[in-house]
Amino acid sequence: MWQQLLRSLTTDWTLFDYLVWLRSIYGSLYTSQDVYIANYSAALDCINSGITTIIDHCHIMNSADHSDAAVKGLKDSQIRGTFCYGLYGNPSQDPAKPIFDRASREKDAKRVRTEHFPNNDPSTTVLTFGITPDEVQAVPIDVVKRELEFSRSLGARIITSHVAMGRYDDGRQVVRQLGEANLLGPDCLFSHGASFTDEELAMIKSLGAAICATPETEL
Which of 25, 30, 70, 108 could join 34 in a cystine, given CB atoms 3.0 to 4.6 angstroms apart? Predict the structure, then answer.
């Protein structure tokens, strides 16, 4: 949702261009006001297009102010959905102003859950709380496992991540490793999945996890 303000830049980009420019540069330069405007306008754009329920994979947590702005933008729009706090760390473009480190983001995620989502039941509240772990194919599997356990300790309703990204897949089979560790469940939502193995698809089906396809990226 936070990338709403930059959509017109990416019409002819590859996934690699996106990772370099949006995730590594623009994401580090966003202010909290940018995040609020982006989330608010993105949610209104969805509603105007007939999309009334969203998952916000929100990896723009550069400060506590960014977190609050992201939540406020969605709540002010009154869209239904799950806000997934991103544990991914954007690289700092200014050494004098370091981006949140991992410990700071985890501490802030706990604060956001407590302050903004005291009720996390979708049957009684419009917006619920979830977690977006660090990029699961870019960190050691032990980090992935620990972040899933951390997410569940906060009562995250949905835990969403990017996996099995076709030609960009490194062959680690993260879903298989999580399944073998008994860490897969109905709270897991995996984006992409273009290179899932049959074994991983069977695990996802049997354990009630879900897949979110992004057709242009998959193609």
Answer: 30
Q: Tell me the DSSP string of 115-159.
A: HH-S---TTT-SEEEEEE-S-TTTS-HHHHHHHHHHHHHTT-S-E
Per DSSP, 102 falls in state: H
pLDDT of 214 reads 85
CA atoms of 3 and 57, how far apart (whole Å): 11
Owning domain of residue 152: 133-219
Residue 53 has pLDDT above 90, yes or no: yes
Name the one residue in this structure whose structure tokens are 């979830």.
130
Q: In 3D, which of 33, 36, 111 has the Cα closest to residue 70?
A: 36
Is 114 in the same domain as 143? no
* Residue 121: per-residue pLDDT: 97
For the residues 91-106, what does the mean pLDDT come to?
Answer: 87
Q: For residue 67, give the nearest of 117, 125, 18 by alpha carbon.
A: 117
Q: How distant is the alpha carbon of residue 89 from its chain centre? A: 12
CA atoms within 13 A on the CB side of 5: 15
Structural domains in the chain (count): 2
